[in-house]
């Protein structure tokens, strides 16, 4: 995929989330008809997706790339999401009942973004399975906490029919090794047709908005991550603070990077990463990868 770069936000849409409205009008029948995973497909992949704030819903290229990526795979039986925006220990799961309201954890955007629905089916069976997989670790169900924007924004583009059960799992901390281990515990779900999705941002710098020259640092970090992934070097990814160029600029906090470790941990082959999206937006890498 050709890499494009933009240091400014996407071009203004006709109205807030108009690009998302256009996506729904264009692809809903295709989304509803997507073939569902069967055991003959083999394990579902694990994914790391770079998600944006609500302006993603105004970016037709980003939305289209996410939808096409999801269409390249069978529709999962269910989805487990680990998002940059929920850290809670011990590990917790979001409300699994159908119709739990979304957790609109953002501000400063047009009010319409907080009215957009993404009502996924009942995920109680998946919640029980997760509780069993996590063994003796206490698992708290936050019954009133719906999906946060790190979960629902990419999924609105990938599975716009909202017909796949989804459970969000909290990050029990921001230590990369902890997220790698969490991903390894989720690995068996892939053989059951469950998609394991880490949602963050390959680089997450606000400083680059004010100092566009810092894009050199975010680009260097992105290139380093691609190389580490290609080698399956989970140890380097865990030690990214020391080993990655531009880490202090690309990730002043760990929250948007460590979900990648969850996806790596859930993979059978850490060196299998293939970039589905490779694009710079507002000076940051929106790279999203698939692992098997």
UniProtKB/TrEMBL annotation:
Residue ranges constituting the Extradiol ring-cleavage dioxygenase class III enzyme subunit B domain according to the UniProt record: 67-269
Gene3D superfamilies in alphabetical order: LigB-like
InterPro entries named among the record's database cross-references: Extradiol_dOase_DODA, Xdiol_dOase_suB
Cofactor: Zn(2+)
Keyword Cell inner membrane in record: no
GO molecular function list: ferrous iron binding; oxidoreductase activity, acting on single donors with incorporation of molecular oxygen, incorporation of two atoms of oxygen; zinc ion binding
This protein's UniProt keywords: Dioxygenase, Metal-binding, Oxidoreductase, Zinc
PANTHER family per record: 4,5-DOPA DIOXYGENASE EXTRADIOL-LIKE PROTEIN
Family listed: Belongs to the DODA-type extradiol aromatic ring-opening dioxygenase family.
Protein name stated in the entry: Extradiol ring-cleavage dioxygenase class III protein subunit B
Originating organism: Nocardiopsis dassonvillei (strain ATCC 23218 / DSM 43111 / CIP 107115 / JCM 7437 / KCTC 9190 / NBRC 14626 / NCTC 10488 / NRRL B-5397 / IMRU 509)
């Amino acid at each position: 995929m050709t890499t494009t770069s933009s240091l400014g936000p996407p071009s203004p849409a006709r109205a807030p989330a108009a690009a998302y409205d256009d996506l729904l009008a264009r692809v809903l029948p295709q989304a509803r008809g997507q073939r569902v995973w069967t055991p003959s497909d083999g394990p579902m992949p694990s994914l790391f997706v770079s998600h944006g704030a609500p302006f993603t819903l105004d970016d037709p290229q980003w939305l289209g790339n996410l939808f096409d990526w999801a269409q390249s795979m069978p529709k999962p039986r269910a989805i487990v999401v680990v998002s940059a925006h929920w850290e809670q220990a011990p590990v917790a799961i979001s409300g699994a009942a159908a119709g739990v309201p979304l957790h609109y954890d953002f501000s400063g955007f047009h009010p319409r973004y907080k009215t957009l629905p993404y009502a996924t089916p009942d995920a109680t069976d998946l919640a029980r399975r997760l509780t069993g997989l996590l063994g003796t670790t206490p698992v708290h169900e936050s019954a009133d906490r719906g999906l946060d924007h790190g979960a629902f924004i990419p999924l609105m583009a990938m599975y716009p029919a909202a017909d796949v059960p989804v459970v969000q799992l909290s990050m029990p901390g921001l230590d990369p090794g902890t997220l790698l281990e969490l991903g390894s515990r989720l690995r068996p779900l892939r053989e059951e047709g469950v998609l394991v999705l880490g949602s963050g941002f390959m680089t997450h710098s606000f400083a680059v908005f004010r100092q566009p020259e810092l894009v050199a640092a975010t680009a260097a970090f992105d290139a380093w991550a691609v190389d580490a992934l290609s080698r399956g070097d989970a140890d380097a990814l865990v030690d990214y603070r020391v080993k990655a160029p531009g880490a202090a600029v690309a990730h002043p906090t760990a929250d948007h990077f460590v979900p990648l470790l969850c996806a790596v941990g859930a993979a059978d082959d850490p060196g299998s990463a293939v970039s589905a999206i490779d694009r710079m937006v507002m000076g940051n890498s929106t790279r999203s990868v698939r692992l098997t």
